[in-house]
Write a structure and sequence with these properties.
Blueprint (H helix, E strand, L loop, with lengths): L38 E6 L3 H23 L1 H5 L4 H31 L1 E5 L2 E9 L2 E8 L3 E7 L3 H6 L1 E8 L6 E7 L1 H26 L1
Length: 207
C-alpha cells in the first residue's frame, strides 16, 4: 500500500459521490485531470479576497477625487480650454484603467482553485493574466489535511487556509482564503480513504 495512507481501509469502498447543493463548478476542471479521473468538487477562493481588491481600488478613487477637488481647480483656473479638455480626458482614461484593473484582478483571483478529484488533488494558482502554476498531488502522497481559521475576519466570514500535508520531502499544499476549510479538509480525507480502499480492493483482486 502506498505510504501515508490508512493501514486498514474498508473492504468495500463506497462509490464516490460529488458534493451536492450546487457546490460543483467544474468549468475547465477536466482539462487538468488524468485519463480515468473524475472531479469530486472544485473549490474556488473565498470572495473576501475580491472585497480587499475593491477596497484598495476605492481608496485609489478617493485619492484621485481629492486631488481633482483640491488641486486641479486652482491649477486650471487660468488655463486654456484645450488644457482643461486634456485634464478631463486624462481623468476619464485613469478611471477606465482602474475598471480594467479590477476586471483583470477579479478574473485572475477567480481562476485560482483547488480541484478535488477521485485520485489526486490539483491546485491551480493563477498568478497573473498570462501566468498560471498547476500542481498535482496524488492521494498516495497525502499524509493529513487541516483547515485553519485564525483571526476575527476569517471566523466571521467563514474562510481560512487549507493545508494538505504531504509525505517525504514534498512541499505541503497551501490553499489560502479557502471557504469553510474544515469542510473541504473532511471531503479530502474521505476521498483519500476511498482511494486507499480502491487500491486495497484492486490488490486483492489481482491476487
Amino acid at each position: 500500500m502506498p505510504p501515508g495512507l490508512p493501514n486498514t481501509p474498508p473492504a468495500s469502498p463506497p462509490p464516490i459521490q460529488p458534493v451536492q447543493n450546487g457546490e460543483i463548478d467544474e468549468g475547465d476542471a477536466d482539462n487538468f485531470l488524468e485519463p480515468g479521473e473524475k472531479t469530486i468538487v472544485v473549490v474556488h477562493r473565498h470572495p473576501i479576497g475580491l472585497i480587499f481588491i475593491f477596497l484598495e481600488a476605492l481608496i485609489g478613487v478617493i485619492a484621485l477625487g481629492a486631488l481633482l477637488i483640491f488641486v486641479t481647480p486652482s491649477a486650471l483656473k487660468n488655463s486654456s480650454p484645450e488644457t482643461n479638455r486634456l485634464v478631463l480626458g486624462g481623468a476619464v482614461f485613469a478611471v477606465a484603467i482602474l475598471f480594467l484593473f479590477l476586471f483583470v484582478a477579479s478574473y485572475v483571483y477567480r481562476q485560482s482553485r483547488l480541484i478535488i478529484a477521485d485520485k489526486s488533488l490539483i491546485q491551480v494558482l493563477q498568478k497573473s493574466l498570462f501566468y498560471r502554476d498547476v500542481s498535482r498531488l496524488s492521494f498516495s502522497n497525502v499524509q493529513d489535511v487541516t483547515g485553519e481559521q485564525r483571526g476575527i475576519l476569517p471566523t466571521i466570514f467563514g474562510y481560512g487556509t487549507l493545508e494538505i500535508q504531504t509525505a517525504g520531502e514534498m512541499d505541503n499544499f497551501l490553499f489560502p482564503t479557502c471557504p469553510n476549510p474544515n469542510k473541504y479538509a473532511h471531503i479530502i480525507l474521505e476521498a483519500r480513504q476511498r482511494y486507499a480502499a480502491a487500491l486495497e480492493s484492486k490488490s486483492e483482486t489481482d491476487v
